[in-house]
Amino acid sequence: MIDELFRPHSHDAADSFDSALETSAKGIKAVKVSLAALMVTAILQVLVVLATGSVALLADTIHNFSDALTSIPLWIAFVIGRRVATRSYTFGYRRAEDLAGLFIVAMIALSAVIAGYESIRRIVDPVDVENLGLLVAAGIIGFLGNEAVAIYRIRVGEEIGSAALIADGHHARTDGLTSLAVVFGALGVYLGFPMADPIIGLLITVAILFVLRDAMRQVFRRLMDGVDESTTLQVESIAAAVPGVLATDSVRVRWVGHRLDASLHVVVDASLTVAEGHAVAEEVRHDLFHGVDKLDEVVVHVDPDGDHEHHETTRHHLERLGMLPRTDA
Questions:
Q1: Burial group, residue 171, by CB count within 10 angstroms (0-12, 13-18, 19+)
Q2: Domain-by-domain residue ranges, the chain?
Q3: 48 in Cβ contact with 171 (< 8 Å)
Q4: CB atoms within 10 A of CB 229
Q5: Whole-number pLDDT of residue 24
Q6: Which CATH superfamily is domain 229-320 in?
Q7: Is the separation of the CB atoms in 74 and 114 below 8 Å?
Q8: CB pairs under 8 A, 24+ apart, for 217-222?
Q9: Of 10, 48, 92, 266, which sits most exposed with the smallest number of CB within 10 A?
């Protein structure tokens, strides 16, 4: 039947579901490991803050705690995203991961506000920084802990296609670099410039704002269904290479969580039977599942070739959605 064009090929659907479960499991493992590592790093830094009174280290520690806490909504989102679709949520729950990205952005913004406030307060009301050796050690601990987490998060995020996890990885990497800034603040105090500590705290705040900007770009692009142009071109080229496909049109691709959904029109010989046209569409879907990484679902609409306008009845709807070229263009 023609409506089978819009249903997943049974074998491919099972593969996609299993692959989605596998990638979600990798994401859950990544947030568990990074949460534990960052909490240990932040707790060690808190102990040094209490001993030294360093506002630069306090700002860095606050950021590390917020970074650790961003693992929690990601964890929840990965779990929710594994739930099967229902009649109310017919596309499933994978978008939960993209919504978790909003929480990550909010936490980064909050950490910038707190770090900036504490730094300014220490400029207005200076406090002596003590135990500089411990302060330097804490900065090094912060760098090593965050860099290890950053490498792990980014690697897993790229492997499974999770923008939220990659953004959180870059967040951790910046935390590591700001931990090194704490070391420079301690050296400034040691050399007789006590204001170096809160000034470094302000520099950390600026660094957090740059992370916030990059995270917002990445997260909101996913929420707006943005993909790399190369992905769209890949879908077009693979579909066009299938025997029986005369042309492709209206190719759409979007991320939903860390998986891709795609839809497109293909033009086939008008003399083909419904069954033969369906077979071409299934071959397109099959090749796309195998050729496009992280692809979960493909919807293929079959158009017969020829001069006859096959979409006249619905053309005004399709034009409004950008699915067909306008006749008056």
A1: buried
A2: 2-223, 229-320
A3: no
A4: 9
A5: 66
A6: Cation efflux protein, cytoplasmic domain (3.30.70.1350)
A7: no
A8: 218/101, 218/163, 218/166, 218/167, 219/98, 219/101, 219/102, 219/104, 219/105, 219/163, 219/164, 219/167, 221/163, 222/98, 222/101, 222/163, 222/164, 222/255
A9: 10
Encoded tokens for 328: 């008056």
Same fold, 2-223 and 229-320: no
> Out of 11-20, 111-120, 193-202, 215-224, which region has the weakest mean confidence (pLDDT)?
11-20
User: Where do we find the tokens 């990074």?
Assistant: 34
Backbone angles phi, psi at 268, to 5 degrees: -125, 170
Token code pair at residue 318: 């399709």
Nearest to 3 by CA among 267, 302, 295: 302
Per-residue confidence (pLDDT) for residue 245, from 0 to 100? 94
Strand (E) positions, the chain? Answer: 247-256, 259-268, 295-304
pLDDT, position 42: 76
Entry pTM? 0.71
CATH class of 2-223: mainly alpha
